[in-house]
Amino acid sequence: MEALERITERVCRNGHPDDPETPRPLLSIDEFFEGNDVVGSIGCNLIDIPHPNEFFKVFKAISHRPDVKDIRIQVSAFDDPDWPFSDTVYIMTSASESEVGSWFPEHLKPDEIWEGFVNQDYEAYEIPTETRPVAVWWD
Length: 139
Hints:
By secondary structure, the chain is an alpha+beta fold. Helices cover 23% and strands 18% of the residues. The chain has one domain (3-137). It has a 5-stranded antiparallel β-sheet. The longest helix has 12 residues, at 52-63. It comes from Pseudoalteromonas shioyasakiensis.
């Protein structure tokens, strides 16, 4: 199965993510980034929009930290037929918001960081014990 078919099937599992009745998909970093070469699928408002591989490398490194148990990419929209779009990533961690912000190189720094999921419907996901979701968001 080709990457676009795979991600489309995964993202639309509970309905189309652009439908407000569909729970927001929460993809693993591998699900979101494997086969993703669509510049602007994440970090589209950063100066010199980075290639998704730059984000993937950073998230892979973060995922190996002892204070991180999981990372989930929220699919915010799927209005580009080439790949779903994300502006929010949830890091399941025991680290503080300021610590999480320090894990990003300057050119990939999120615009905002906060604790917890925003108030909307998400697909089923169990937060790993001894962690909480810390959101990183790019405007």
